[in-house]
Amino acid sequence: MTRKVISGIYKISNIINNKCYIGSSIHMNNRIKQHKRNLKKGDHGNKYLQNSWNKYGKAAFKFEIIKWCEKRSLLIYEQAFINKFKSVSPNGYNISPTAGNTLGVIMAEATKRKIANSVKGFKHTKEARKKISETHKGKKFTDAHKKNIGLKSKGRTHTDATKEKMSKIQKDMGIWKGRHHSEETKQKISDKAKGRIVSKETRKKLSKINKGNTLRLGKKHSEETKQKISEKAKGRTAWNKGKSSSKETKKKLSKALKGRVPWNKGIKTGPLSEESKRKISEALKGRVFSKEHKRKIGEANRITKLNI
Hints:
Layout: E1 8-14, E2 20-25, H1 28-41, H2 47-56, E3 61-68, H3 74-85, H4 109-119, H5 126-136, H6 143-153, H7 160-173, H8 183-193, H9 200-210, H10 223-233, H11 247-257, H12 274-284, H13 291-307
Antiparallel strand pairs: 1-2, 1-3
C-alpha cells in the first residue's frame, strides 16, 4: 500500500491583476485553510497579499494546489514555481525571492505584536516538555555556536520586574531543589574561573547587589557541611600565601576602614568555654607556623599584656 502524499506546492492567484503567491507545506489543506482564515480576519502576515485581499475582495482570489511532492523536494519545487510565475513583489505577493527563506524580511511592528500576543500565556503540556527534553538530551553545542550565543547575549540586561518574575517561576517550579553539580561540572566551573579578572565596574555592581543581603543571615552550617569544607580545604595552598599587599593597596584598605565601627565593639565575650578551646585546639593540630608568624604572634601577645 502506497503512502498518501499530503505535502506539496500551492498557488494563491488574483484573477484581476494576475499577481500570485507561491507557497509550500507539509500539510497542504491545513495551510490553505489557514491562509483563508487569516485573510478574512485581516491579520495575514503577508502585507502585500492582505492589502490586495482588502482591495479586491474574496471573489478575486483563487486557491489551488499545483504540485504534490515529497517533503524532501518541497523547496526545490517551490523555488522553481516562484521563478516560473515571477511571484516576488512587486510582480507578485512573495516577500522573499528564495524558497523557505525569510532572511531580510522586516516585520511590521503590528505583525510582531500579533505574533507576541498569539503566544502569550501558552504553556507546553508535561508530555510535550518531556519530548522536548528527550530531544535535547546529549546535544552538544559547537564552540562557534556557543560564541554566537554569547555575543548575542552580551550587554543584554533584564529589568528588575523581569528578574523578579524569573526568580518567582524558579522558586515555584523548584528547578534546583535537591539538585547538585557533579564533581566534573564543579571542576569545569573552577577551571573556567581561574585567572578571571573582575573589572572595577563589575565589583561595584556585585557590592551594590549584596548590600543588605540577608539571605544567609542567622543561618549556620551543619556539622556535616563543616566537615566537608574542612576536608576539601586540607592540603590546599592559600591563594594569598607568600603574597604581600602593595603600599597602594594598604593605603586603600586603611582609607576604606576609616570611621568604620568594628562588628565586635562593646561586646564582652568573656573567657572561652572548654568546648571552644577544644575546637580551636583541634583546628590547629598539625599546623606548622613559620618563624616570622611566631614572631608576629609573640609581639601581639606582648602588646596585649602591656595594654592590660
